[in-house]
Every structure is written in C-alpha cells, then in structure tokens.
Automatic annotation (TrEMBL):
GO MF assignments: FMN binding; oxidoreductase activity, acting on the CH-NH group of donors, NAD or NADP as acceptor
Pfam families, A to Z: Flavin_Reduct (PF01613)
SUPFAM superfamilies per UniProt: FMN-binding split barrel
Descriptive protein name: Flavin reductase like domain-containing protein
Alphabetized InterPro entries for the sequence: Flavin_Rdtase-like_dom, Split_barrel_FMN-bd
Signal peptide: none
C-alpha cells in the first residue's frame, strides 16, 4: 500500500512509529526551578555526535499547564540541564509507570519506586540503578512543525556506568539487555549481537 500522511492511512492504528524500530529509550530526568523532580521515557531518542558527545530526544505532546509542551521540556527550558538514563529490561515496569500523564507536582521516582542519586556535574537526579546515565547541558531546543513537537539537544558532560556492565573494559549491553520501543504498545530487548568489519578494516 501507499499513503500520504496528510490524507490518512486508513488502518486501525497509525503505522508510522512501527516503521522506524526498534528505537532506544531515553529515560529523561529533570528538576524544576521549584525543586520538583520529573522522570519520563522518550523513544524518539538517540546519540547524535562523538566530539563532543551529544544526544537528542523529541517530545511530541503537551499538557495544559506547561505552555504547549510537557514537564520534561519545560524543566529543561528553565534549567538548561537534564539526565538521560538508559533503560534495562528489568526496569521495564518502572519505566512504564513513569510514562503516565501526571500532574507536574508528581515525582515519578517515588511513584515508580526508584532510588535516585545526585548527578555530579548538573543540578538533577539520576536513576541510581540504571546501567548508564548521561548528564547533559542543553545546547538547543528546536521547534518542529506540528503543535507540540520539540527536539532537545544536549552535550554530555558526565557519564555514569554501572560497574557490572563493564566487561574487560567494554560497556557490554548484554550485561543488562537494553529495552527498545517498537510500534503501538510493543517493546523489545537486545539479547544477541554480531559484528561486521567495515570495508578496508
């Protein structure tokens, strides 16, 4: 089949987010200027540069009390920092709990029963048991076409790696099985890998 998004797809559910999969999940923690803490997962997330290391995530919906966006982006607009926590398979239920459309005063760390630790370089909390956490300083927020579409870019200024995920000097994703988003309500996890040499290597 072929369809133009502006005309609609005619299917029971939108297939677009099932096409670009699997997508890594950035579990973004932020702190508001009032000291309130927020934690929410974003599957429009990825690393975008090595030197300096940079990441991005996109927020695509809004809450009535957040001026056209959600708590995460609103907090980052105010404080210019955020932390990306990597989600392992064992944390899938806590991640899912933190994804709800809660009031801005809700602390998702507490709601999901998660331990928090202070970041080293930024004024923000991180998920204590996460396989890795990336402390980030905002570089830019880009407004995309669409009512509530924003892409947030940040430079990574601090990296936390869980000790058991380092195997012979390699950050080994098989030690924790990262969670990834597929389409609809579906997720997957990394349980196998293979290597390829680049041409000329």
């Amino acid at each position: 089949m072929f369809y133009r998004p502006e005309d609609g797809h005619g299917l029971p559910h939108n297939p677009f987010n099932a096409i670009v999969t699997p997508r890594p999940i950035g579990w973004i923690s932020t702190r508001g200027t009032d000291g309130s803490e927020n934690l929410a997962p974003y599957s429009f997330f990825n690393a975008v540069a090595y030197e300096p290391p940079q990441v991005m995530f996109a927020s695509t919906s809004a809450k009535p009390d957040r001026d056209g966006t959600k708590d995460t982006v609103a907090n980052i607009r105010d404080t210019e920092v955020f932390c990306v926590n990597i989600v392992e398979y064992q944390m899938r239920d806590a991640m899912n709990v933190s994804s709800g459309p809660y009031e801005r005063e809700t602390d998702e760390f507490t709601l999901a029963g998660l331990e928090r630790s202070s970041c080293e370089q930024i004024a923000c909390s991180r998920v204590s048991g996460a396989p890795a956490s990336l402390e980030c300083k905002l570089t830019q927020i880009v407004k995309l076409p669409g009512e509530a579409n924003y892409t947030v870019f940040g430079e990574v200024v601090g990296v936390h790696l869980r000790d058991d995920c380092l195997v012979d000097g390699i950050f080994d994703v098989m030690a924790f099985n990262p969670l990834a988003r597929m389409g609809y309500r579906d997720y997957t996890t990394v349980r196998e890998r293979f290597s390829l040499k680049r041409p000329g290597e």
